[in-house]
Amino acid sequence: MHKDPNTLWEEVSLHLKESLPKDIFDKWIAVIQCQSVVEDNVTLVVPNDYYQSWLVEHYIPLIKKALATVSGREFLVSLAVDYSLLSETEGKKEKKERPHPFSSPKRGKEPKINLNKHYTFDSFVVGPANQFAHAAAIASAQAPSRVYNPLFIHGGVGLGKTHLMQAIGSFILSKKMRGKICYTTCEAFLNEYIDALQNNLLSKFRKKYRTVDALLIDDIHFLAGKDRLQEEFFHTFNAIFENHKQIVMTSDRPAGELSGLTPRLVSRFEWGLVVELEIPDMETRVAILRKKCDQLDLSIDPNLLFYIAERVSSNVRRLEGALIKVASYVSLTGQDMDRSKLEYLLRDTLDQEKKHAISVENIQKTVADHFDLRVGDITGRRRPQNIAWPRQVAMYLSRTMTDLSFPVIGEAFGRNHATIVHACQTVKKRQTEDITLQQTLSLLRQRIGHSAQKKNSSF
Ligand code: ADP
Ligand code: MG
Question: Is the shortest distance between the CB of 317 and ligand 1 below 6 Å?
C-alpha cells in the first residue's frame, strides 16, 4: 500500500502521461502536486484557481481512474490551491526534478511570506478605473510608512485588491529593504489569534504582528461583527502605527460602510489614504487579457479577446477564467472558436455577468414603472395595499434575479431581513396559483433583463 504521497503521485502521473496527449499533460497534469494521502483521501494541490476549476470540471474522473489503476483501490480526490506552488512550477521547467511538496522555497533566514509571484506591479494593467489606487500602491511600496499610512484599498470582488497589495509586498522584498513584512488575510489573522489564545501564546502572537515593518492585511471586511478580533486588531494597528511602520489594508467596501465595525477602527482606517478599485473599462479589460495571454503563453484570436472583454465586464477574475476556458477548449479540441461556440462555452460566466448587471435599483424602478408608482413608494415606509404588493414583488425579484443576500436586499429596501424573507415566500406561493401573476413576473423579468443588457453594452 502506498504511504508516501510523492511515490503514489509519481506513478499516477506517469500513467496519465502515457495516456494523454503531451500538450494536455504538460498544461494540466504536470502542474499538480500531491499534498497528502490520508486513508482514502488524496489531496492534490495546484497553483491557481483556473487549474482548480478546469481540473475539477474535466479531469477529476480521469485522475481517480488512474489512481485506482495504479493502486488497486478507490480514492476520494480533493483539489486545493496553493499559490506558493507558482514559483516552484516555474523552476521545475528546467530542473525537471520535482520539489518535495512540503518544502518551502529556501530563503535563508527570511521569514516565510506567502506572496503569489505573479502578483507584481509589472503584471498589473493600469487604466482609469485603477490608476489612482495603483499610484498610491507604488508610492507606499517605494517609501513604506512615509507617504500614505495606512493605505486602505477597497473595491468589489475580483478587481485586483489582493494583486495590488501583494505587489507592494513583492516590491519591498525585491528592493531588499530591510525589515519584516507580513502579508496575511484577516481570516488567517483570526485563526492565528484563536490558536494563540488556546495555546497561551498570545504574547508571541502580539510580538509577531506588532513589530513588523509592514503589515499587509487582506480582506479586512472580515473584521465586521467580530468584537474581540477588532479589539485585538485595534491594538495591533496602534502599535504598528506608533512605530511609524506601514499598514496596508484591503476591503470589499469602504470602512464607513462596513456594518458592525467599531467607529474607532473606521476612523483609523480613514487616517491615511483611501483608494478605490473600480470596474475596468473595455480597453483595460482587453489589455488585461493580452497580458494574461503573454504570461500563459497562449495565442488567441484578437477578435475573441475583444469579444470576451465585451461580454465579461464586472470582475477581472471572471474575465481571466473565461480566457482560460476558451484557451483550453482550443488547445484540447484543436477546433476554431466561433461566437456561438463561445457563447455556449461561457454560458455560466455570462449568466453570472447578467446577474451582476441587474441591480436592485433597476428592479425597483422597473417594478415602480409597471405599477405606476414612484421608486420612493417602493422603498418608502407607507403601507397601503396598492404599494405593499408591488414592493413585495420587487423584493422577490431582487432575491431571485441577483446574487444578493436577504440582509443586503433588506438594506436596499430599508427593511430587515425577515421582511424580505416573508415577501419572497408570499410572492412565491401566490404565483403557483395565479397565472396573471406569473405573466406579470415574466414580463418584469424580461424588462429588467433588457435594461441590464443595455447598461452592459453601453461603454
Ligand atoms: P480581489 O482581491 O479584489 O478579489 P484579485 O487581486 O484576487 O481580486 O484579482 C483577481 C484576478 O484578477 C487576479 O488573478 C489578478 O491578477 C487579476 N487582476 C485584477 N486586476 C488586474 C489588473 N489591473 N491587471 C492585471 N490583472 C488583474
Ligand atoms: Mg482578494
Answer: yes
Once rounded to an integer, what is the mean pLDDT over residues 176-200?
90
Q: Cell match 478507490: residue?
A: 74
Query: Which CATH superfamily includes the segment(s) 360-457?
Result: DnaA protein, C-terminal DNA-binding domain (1.10.1750.10)
* Domains of the chain by residue range: 5-95, 131-277, 282-356, 360-457
Atom of ligand 1 nearest to the CA of 163: 6
Q: What is the pLDDT of residues 110-122, one digit of tens each?
A: 445 788 988 999 9
Report the alpha-carbon distance of residue 379 to residue 415 in Å, rounded: 9
Integer-rounded Cα radius of gyration of the chain? 25
- What are the residues facing 38 on neighbouring strands? 41
Q: Is the dihedral of CA 296, 305, 168, 265 positive or negative?
A: negative
- What fold, for 282-356? Helicase, Ruva Protein; domain 3 (1.10.8)
Nearest 5°: CA angle at 67, between 105 and 95?
Answer: 30
**Cβ of 157 below 6 Å from ligand 1:** yes
User: pLDDT per residue over 55-93, tens digit each?
Assistant: 887 888 889 999 999 888 888 898 888 766 654 444 443
Please indicate whether the domains covering 5-95 and 282-356 agree at the CATH topology level: no
| Residue nearest ligand 1's atom 26 by CA | 124
List Cα–Cα distances, 327 to 107, 333, 346, 416, 440, in angstroms.
Answer: 35, 10, 12, 45, 41
Residue nearest to atom 14 of ligand 1 (CA): 317
Mutate to test the pocket of ligand 1, among 115, 163, 253, 356 (most ligand atoms within 8 A of CB): 163
Distance 429 CA to ligand 1 centre (A): 42
Task: Tell me which of 387 and 177 has the higher pLDDT.
Answer: 387
Q: Which atom of ligand 1 is nearest to the CA of 49?
A: 14
User: What pLDDT score does 40 carry?
Assistant: 87
Q: From the CA of 34, how far away is ligand 2's center (Å)?
A: 25
Contacts of 79 (CB under 8 A, 6+ apart): 43, 44, 45, 46, 52, 55, 56, 60
CATH number assigned to the domain covering 5-95: 3.30.300.180
Q: Give buried/exposed letters for 59-87 (b at 16+ CB in 10 A, else e).
A: beeebbebbeebbeeebebebeebbbbbb
SS3 per-residue string spanning 278-327: CCCCHHHHHHHHHHHHHHHCCCCCHHHHHHHHHHCCCCHHHHHHHHHHHH
3-state secondary structure of 44: strand
Which ligand 1 atom sits nearest the alpha carbon of residue 250?
Answer: 2
Class of domain 131-277: alpha beta
pLDDT of residue 259: 79
- Nearest ligand, CA of residue 127? 1
